[in-house]
């Protein structure tokens, strides 16, 4: 129940963010499928779950993996909304 609610909330936030970005940068491509938003949000939930449930992960590794994923995700979004 928590997972589904979290994903739905993140989808709504992501769509609103893209809408706001389009107002500021009208040249960006904003036709992103709802399923893609769900998959992206679900991935975040999985990442958080992996970090929380792992007993062998240290603080530095958490920082590294989050930094890597943020860079990876940012590059992907940049490509996706590029006109």
UniProtKB/TrEMBL annotation:
This is TetR/AcrR family transcriptional regulator.
